[in-house]
Amino acid sequence: MSPTTGARPRNIQIHGVPIPNLGDMHVSEGSWLVTEIAVGGELVPPLEGARLTLEIAGDRVGGSAGVNRFVGQVSEDGFGPLATTMRAGPPDLMDQERLFLSHLDEIDSVESIGEEMVLLVSGIVVVSLAPLNSEGGNPQRVENV
């Protein structure tokens, strides 16, 4: 824990090498669609009807958490703080949304596997993403969220 902020120190890494600014990673910039999310220690596809997206542009991040949109900063400490809209949705989608946002808050490394990207916590994949253009569609740009 940091004595000044109370936050636990985190250093984002790619392939085990610390990086100075996640937004500078070419592999991470762009629009991403969540293909799997860790639920109870198992990677599963997002719930039907939920479109979880992540858009990274420089030091900004945004996207859809399923029901609500979110925006925030990207730094060597990860994603955050994140601000979200406050819409209500079905309980199962809201539970998945809370879990997704929690995973984004906790990531400590990012790895690329081919064109895909995975977000990890303590070496465990918690979110798998594919480039959004491979699935079609395009989320709202980070600057406009």
By DSSP, the count of extended strands is 11
Structural shape: globular
Strand content: 35-45%
In the CATH hierarchy, the third-tier topology is known as: Lipocalin
| Main sheet overview | 11 strands, mixed
CATH top level label:
Mainly Beta
How are helices and strands ordered from N to C? EEEEEEEEHEEE
Total discrete domains = 1
Radius of gyration of CA atoms, rounded to a whole number: 14 Å
Look at the structure and give the mean pLDDT: 76
Helix content: 10-25%
CATH architecture: Beta Barrel
Distance between the termini: 31 Å
The structure class reads mainly beta
Uncertain regions: pLDDT < 50 for 5+ in a row?
Answer: 1-27, 134-145
Task: Quickly count the helices.
Answer: 1
Which helices and strands appear, and what pairs or packs with what?
Elements: E1 13-14, E2 17-18, E3 30-39, E4 42-44, E5 53-57, E6 60-64, E7 69-75, E8 78-84, H1 91-106, E9 109-113, E10 116-121, E11 124-131
Parallel strand pairs: 1-9
Antiparallel strand pairs: 1-2, 3-4, 3-5, 3-11, 5-6, 6-7, 7-8, 9-10, 10-11
Structure description:
By secondary structure, the protein is mainly β. The protein has a single domain (22-132), classed as Lipocalin, CATH 2.40.128.270. It has one helix at residues 91-106, and strands at 13-14, 17-18, 30-39, 42-44, 53-57, 60-64, 69-75, 78-84, 109-113, 116-121, 124-131. Strands 1, 2, 3, 4, 5, 6, 7, 8, 9, 10 and 11 form an 11-stranded mixed β-sheet that branches. The chain is globular and about 35 Å long. The model is unreliable at 1-27 and 134-145 (pLDDT under 50).
